[in-house]
Amino acid sequence: MPVSGTRGTLKRVVFIAAAAAVGGFLFGYDSAVINGAVTGIQKRFAVGNVEIGATVSSALLGSALGAWFAGSLADRLGRLPVMRIAAGLFAISSIGSGLAFAIYDLAAWRVLGGIAIGMASVIGPAYIAEVAPAAYRGRLGSFQQLAIVLGIAVSQLVNYVLAEVAGGDVRGVLAGLEAWRWMLIACVVPAGVYLTLALLIPESPRFLIAARRLDEARTVLARVEGETVDLDRRVADIESVLRSELRPRLSDLRGHRLGLAPIVWAGIVLSMFQQFVGINVIFYYSSALWQSVGISQSGSLLISFSSSVINIVGTLIAIALVDRIGRRPLLITGSIGMALSLATASWAFSSAVKVGATVTLPGDRGAIALVAANLFVLFFALSWGVVVWVLLGEMFPNRVRAAALSVAAAAQWLANWLVTVTFPSLSAWNLPVTYLIYAFFAALSAVFVVRCIRETKGRALEEMG
């Protein structure tokens, strides 16, 4: 079904959704930039696996906190003010992280940046779902994940260039600072872009109606749905839904099953499965992982960049299919593909041979491990990477959307933290078993989707419940 209005209307909606999704770019950039900096941080501050795991994952605790209160803050202040606050916090954190004088100082700045990312991770999908016409909501909602993977790719490329300019060493000095510090400081650029765009796009029409700013809501609806739409009727439809329900609060999420409504639990578990498959191990630690099996720093950064390109390809596939074949088929396909590729990677790494301080993969096992890792990234990107964010933006009823999305996103960040903080120690203990654990969760996620997730393709937000 076409969007009401002209091609210009669709272009405006695409721009608005893309601008809101830049918060996802911040997440992707921060996720992957630390991948390139891990080796430099570990050597500069002389820390082990436990300390580096805690430092890398510290941002995720901040993200859980930011996601937790972002929904209620957005319902009080509006969607755009929360975006602007997040952009400012992330810019400050980027500079502080790059100039950190100790490992605990770096961790503190990463927590602050994590709060900003957590806020952006909640407000982006909610805002896009609220401004996007139903026929295009899946593809526009996919912009969040596309922005994440673009952020990953750009940061990997920046990391590689900085390391090369510094002589192939992330501890090489550039303009008085080690290269890994410039990697972290460079995050201030996307933060500035996010802030600028958040000053240009309109407020969510559903928030405006809830705040009784009806004339502004009509203006925004005309921009995103076209001049030919019956604006009074659209406002009345949204207003009737909002008026019949209480203002969103965390207490509204309560239900008879373990204290929360079933739809809220579905969002929480969906979010946790997205992380328990171990995807962010690739983005946080792949450089160090490939170095551990004999690949140089520059080579490992280049491999990480190639994986991020595959991530983009998979995301574009998902964007093309999410509104055509639906959310559930993509999730199930991705779960099966991830389980098989992770099991293959586990098998390849099980043959690693250590001679002195050098670890190698014999014969063709190295190539198999690399292909399996990239297939895992591809299957994740074309399914769980995109679809989870789309579902979180649209699966909850209007009454509790912001609050429920906050809880689900906070659960996702906590799951991400658990995987990230444990991987260095788990991989040092037994890397093949670690990958088998992730493969188990990938297989289990398919069962969860079949049993617990409803299809939302083509349904209006007011029909969710």
Automatic annotation (TrEMBL):
Keywords: Membrane, Transmembrane, Transmembrane helix, Transport. It comes from Microtetraspora glauca. This is Sugar porter family MFS transporter. Signal peptide: none annotated. The keyword Transmembrane helix applies. The keyword Mitochondrion does not apply. It holds the Pfam family Sugar_tr. It is found in: Cell membrane. NCBIfam families: SP. It is a multi-pass membrane protein. The chain crosses the membrane at residues 12-32, 52-70, 82-103, 109-128, 140-162, 182-202, 263-286, 298-322, 329-349, 369-392, 404-423, 435-453. It comes from the Bacteria. Belongs to the major facilitator superfamily. Sugar transporter (TC 2.A.1.1) family. Residues 16-457 form the Major facilitator superfamily (MFS) profile domain. SUPFAM superfamilies: MFS general substrate transporter (SSF103473).
